[in-house]
Automatic annotation (TrEMBL):
Transmembrane segments: none annotated. This is NAD-dependent epimerase/dehydratase family protein. InterPro entries: NAD(P)-bd_dom_sf, NAD(P)-dependent_oxidoreduct, NmrA-like. Pfam families: NmrA.
Amino acid sequence: MRVLITGATGYVGQSVATALAAEGHHVSALTRDPDSGRARTLAGSGVRLVQGSLTDRAVIAETLTETDAVVHTAYDPADQVGGERALFAALAEADRRPHVVYTSGCSVYGEHAHARLTSATPVDGGSVRAGLEAGLRDTGVPHTVLRPGMVHGGDARSSIVGAWFRDALTTGPVHRGRRDKVWSWIHVDDLARAYAAVLRAPEDHRDRVYLLADSQPASASAVVEAAARAAGSTAPVTLRPIEDENPLYRVFDRDEVVDSSPARAELGWAPRESGVIEALPASFAAWRTVGAPWISSPHAMPSDAAGG
């Protein structure tokens, strides 16, 4: 299958591109900078680079003429809707309508008190993510929506875990907001396998929504503590109010436990990687290798940017 991936040099996108190429798909990666290190890494694994962005209508239109599926993992925190709407418009106008695998997240539910989130749980109509999902549906393009839990693993470079590694090495470990909140988690490589599972038989999953997580929910406070220890910090965890958090993370100041049983049953998918706490030492080692620029930067994009 000929697959176009947006955000392919990002945290989730790179893992997805690698997984799809390994399965034998002909993968093209939309990237603003084909000379970047991550783009060159993808090219070395057989991924074709397409220079452009979501708002380059001519580039998108031309690429769609030879595309069977689009995997959308790109997210711009500075413009949460502009690029998405541009992509939706291009898809709606295309003569050839590929199957879209769209990355959403649990922020679609807004403030809630549900013990467990499912695809049938009502979404918050005021949520940006919920609005974008609706915009995709309105195009009439065949699609599947994936809503991951909190993403971890790999080099964690734009996950909340990466931000916690950075805290541990700079200010000292910090927990923001409710101490008792519990989240579902998913390793980035397990998430990539879910995209691959959809594309094995995309028509079987048309208009479906799947929540994705492992079976080991963990409290944010426990992961903050464990991330600090994996980073070598022995400092106590400082508690701060949620108002001290990056605005993009504040929406997660509550329990986020998801039911991924439909994905397991219908996609034939199951997590293979370690749970979040067990994965932290390897993730820190990978983050430290690529993550020096993140140490002095603001909080990275939340996992909701690629799920969560």
